[in-house]
Amino acid sequence: MTLHRRYKLPRKGMPIQLKIESNPAWYQQEHEIQKKSLLALERRFQRAPTNLRAEEQIRYRKERAKYINKIRKDKINGWKGFCTKAANPYGKHYKAAFRKAVLPSQLVALANKTPKRSQLEAATNILGQLFPDPSSQQVLPLSINTADDLPFTEAEITDVIKNMPRGKAPGYDGIDKIIVQSIHKKFPNLFTTLFNKCLQLGLYPDPFKIGNIVLFQKPGKHTKHQHIVQ
To answer: What is the rounded distance in angstroms from the CA atom of residue 15 to the CA atom of residue 6?
Structure first.
């Protein structure tokens, strides 16, 4: 390793050691070969005669799409394998995702519980505090004079789906905003019919009640203000 790669000599003071970035573990030699091949196709497309440029451009775009798709899949699979093999839940994969700005969330003790219990017991305790068992709640008198809710309209459903918050994490089923909007665009009456049928039957399907709950502390906020993601 040469001096120019390891050190940057400032005008005054001691030399500063530079950090040399290395490729991620999932990046293999085949990716580098495909990258060079793609660059060659790009140069061929740029230097092609006018009568052949359109054909070379199509070929280049197809190969670029294949390369991007492979990079995306290998990156996801590599990340999954890296997280699966991790023994420490707050190891390198945690630092890679959250950097050093977010500290690991601690499972606190609630309702005068001792903090010496296991993490599973503490998590169950937190879940019980956030979402109490309905059978333990006070039974309220049933009102039979309340008018039924009006059916949902297609315009109402469209407005809600259109204004879904950006960056919202998908639920337990993995269906995110883009998928919901794509389904609604293809089948405009699907969600309206589904929700009105649930309203008519007075039923809220159990799969709609399932969600992932993550407690973490946002930087700059007090520890008692835990942010809940469902």
So the answer is: 10
Report how far residue 165's alpha carbon sits from residue 224's, in angstroms, rounded to the nearest whole number: 26
Residue 186 structure tokens? 């293809």
pLDDT in tens, 138-168: 666 666 677 778 899 999 999 999 998 877 7
- Please tell me whether residue 229 adopts helix, strand or coil conformation: strand
pLDDT at 54 over 60: yes
CA dihedral over 114, 116, 117, 123, signed as positive or negative? positive
Euclidean distance between CA atoms 196 and 150, whole angstroms: 9
The token pair at 160 is 């809600």
Q: Return d(Cα 127, Cα 129) in angstroms, integer.
A: 5
DSSP per-residue string spanning 93-159: HHHHHHTTTSPPPP----TT--TTS-HHHHHHHHHHHHS--GGGSPPPPPPS-PPPPPPPPHHHHHH
Domain borders along the chain are: 29-98, 104-133+151-209
211 alpha-carbon distance from chain centroid: 14
> Between 177-186 and 154-162, two packed helices, what is the crossing angle to 10 degrees?
150
Which pTM does this prediction carry? 0.39
Task: Quote the CA–CA distance of 52 and 50 in Å, as a whole number.
Answer: 6
Per-residue pLDDT band for 183 (boundaries 50, 70, 90) equals: very high
